[in-house]
Design goal:
Layout: H1 6-13, E1 21-26, H2 28-31, H3 42-53, E2 60-63, H4 71-76, H5 78-81, E3 89-93, H6 109-125, E4 129-133, H7 149-163, E5 166-168, H8 170-178, H9 195-209, H10 216-226
Parallel strand pairs: 1-2, 1-3, 3-4, 4-5
């Protein structure tokens, strides 16, 4: 068993001669529909960065994220959504729905943390390397029921640190862009990233994978991020 910690093992995998199978799962942000208005999701960007820029044409990318999901539902569907694909890498962005107090039964952070431990254990037992992403910040004026997002993002980041799992801290990245308040330039509504936001997530994920920021496709993404901001919309379901 390879004991190299996740943050270092992922770049090593990308140098392997054999093709890799990637499973990207989570909620609507990874599902990647509606809120990019025809633009690509971060999962699609990473697909091109790996298969085009790195020339890993035999790598397979499978997106099993479903809008509205919470982590408990990802675990319930683990056999279909993750295990059956026998992946080498599994990414998970989760927390935007888990934090909502509008659910019939609110999820507490302790239960969420335990579910993360279970998810990471199951991924590793299957021989894959996990990568976690924190959810983006929420406009709590328009979505007060998701005011606990920062707490759930902190649980994801802490779980990654304690377990030696690679992390893309989307929450902190988006917050730093906004400096203070809500990062409207990166969001389509109160909690879904727009096309620019997805491009930011993709560049940070690519950095975690060790992909050169100056590669042809990532250079295009940086240009997209620097370009005109897409217009925001209202409402939505993660």
């Amino acid at each position: 068993m390879n004991e190299t910690p996740g943050p270092r093992r992922l770049p090593e995998l990308l140098r392997a001669d054999h093709p890799l199978t990637w499973v990207m799962t989570g909620d609507s942000i990874t599902h990647g529909i509606v809120h990019t208005h025809g633009g690509r999701s971060y999962a699609e960007h990473v697909h091109e960065a790996v298969r085009a820029d790195l020339g890993r044409t035999r790598d397979a990318f499978i997106n099993t994220a479903v809008s509205g999901r919470v982590l408990a539902e990802v675990l319930e569907d683990f056999d279909h959504g993750v295990r059956q694909w026998r992946p080498d890498v599994v990414t998970l962005m989760i927390g935007t729905n888990d934090c909502s107090t509008s659910r019939k039964s609110a999820i507490d952070t302790a239960a969420f943390e335990q579910s993360l431990v279970t998810f990471l254990t199951q991924v590793r037992e299957g021989g894959a390397v996990p990568l976690l992403l924190t959810p983006p910040p929420v406009d709590t004026v328009r979505a007060p029921e998701r005011s606990r997002t920062s707490q759930f993002a902190a649980v994801v980041a802490s779980a990654a640190t304690r377990s030696g799992t690679a992390l893309v801290d989307v929450f902190s990245e988006f917050t730093s862009v906004a400096r203070a308040g809500f990062p409207r330039a990166l969001m389509n509504d109160a909690y879904h990233p727009n096309a620019r936001g997805h491009a930011v997530i993709a560049t940070r994920l690519a950095h975690t994978l060790g992909i050169d920021a100056g590669s042809p496709y990532l250079s295009q993404l940086h240009a997209l991020i620097a370009g005109p901001s897409p217009g925001p919309a209202d409402g939505g379901r993660a």
